[in-house]
Design brief:
By secondary structure, the protein is α/β, with parallel strands linked by helices. It is built from eleven helices and 14 strands.
């Protein structure tokens, strides 16, 4: 039986991440190799010509799963009927800008896009916020799209999760697919806490804890954490541009696991609306370990938290509480 096409919105689609992301979606990396898609691409009027160029390339690539492309600078047209929204567009921090300036620009962008999604998206639309500050942009979106369930609004920390997997796999010279259950706690910022206390590696002798195999707590508690926290900056330094390919790929991973489910026995990191689990304040968007089934995510419960982790988890929560009050001050 022919499957109906899923409508996927990508905002900021003419930018670096958008350009890397749309072919991945069209190729089935986000929703699976049999799922047809309709791509909705939104960007600002100044990028209209570039956006049209991206549409031309999508047509030229002749993707079998791609059933149509909407390329527009009109937010209502972009949001109409979408089932999944990947919010990549945002206002980047420029030299000399204060955090409040960036926050106030993004608050107004996310307020407008939230209102359009609220009125025009398909029922049950799932939203992934990628643009920074991702956690707080997701929170603003939730405020102004009250009919979208809070469980349907998430932000991207899968990139950090994948970076943590990559660092462990490099350190142990193990294939990345054998490493699982790292956790990113908190904010998609340099205060995030990459935690390996529950992570394992599948070896010839079965699953072994990462801490036992690395056997170097000094490295795991210091260098590993700062490498993952600062990886985005390191890529900008090397590439003279921000990480677009890995961000696009992890965006596909995030939606794929959310929609199609996480592998048995494994969890992933997602920025979700806190319900107070692990003593994290409710009412902020915070990255937790989650499992997904039937299109729903659930926070993994009952993990033992040591004192070192507690301090790190609380520090990143405090930053998010501050960001929230800064964002709300921009609304008034």
């Amino acid at each position: 039986m022919a499957m109906d096409a899923v409508r996927v919105l990508v905002t900021g689609a003419a930018g670096q991440i958008g350009y890397a992301l749309v072919p991945m979606i069209a190729r089935g990396m986000m929703l699976g190799p049999d799922q047809p898609v309709m791509l909705h691409m939104l960007d600002i009027p100044a990028a209209a010509e570039a956006l049209n160029g991206v549409k031309m390339e999508l047509i030229d690539a002749a993707f079998p799963l791609l059933k149509g492309v909407v390329a527009t600078t009109d937010v209502v047209e972009a949001c109409t009927g979408v089932n999944i929204a990947v919010m990549v567009g945002g206002f980047p921090r420029k030299e000399g800008m204060e955090r409040k300036d960036v926050m106030s620009k993004n608050v107004s962008i996310y307020k407008a896009q939230a209102s359009a999604l609220e009125l025009h998206a398909a029922p049950g639309c799932k939203v992934l916020v990628v643009a920074n500050p991702a956690n707080t942009n997701a929170l603003i979106l939730k405020e102004f799209a009250p009919s979208i369930p809070e469980k349907n609004i998430t932000c991207l920390t899968r990139l950090d999760h994948n970076r943590a997997l990559g660092q462990i796999s490099e350190k142990l010279n193990a294939h990345v697919s054998s490493v699982k259950n790292v956790i990113i706690w908190g904010n998609h910022s340099s205060t995030q806490y990459p935690d390996v206390n529950h992570a394992t590696v599948t070896t010839r002798n079965g699953e072994k804890p990462v801490r036992e195999l690395v056997a170097n707590d000094e490295w795991l508690n210091k260098q590993f954490i700062t490498t993952v926290q600062q990886r985005g900056a390191a890529i900008i330094k090397a590439r003279k541009l921000s990480s677009a390919l890995s961000a696009a790929s992890s965006g596909c991973d995030h939606i794929r696991d959310w929609v199609l489910g996480t592998p048995k026995g494994a969890w992933v990191s997602m920025g979700v609306y806190s319900d107070g689990s692990y003593g994290i304040p409710a009412g902020i968007v915070y990255s937790f370990p989650v499992t997904c089934k039937n299109g729903e995510w659930s926070i993994v419960q009952g993990l033992k938290i040591d004192e070192f982790s507690r301090v790190k988890m609380d520090a990143t929560a405090n930053e998010l509480v501050e960001e929230k009050s800064l964002a709300y001050s921009c609304l008034n």
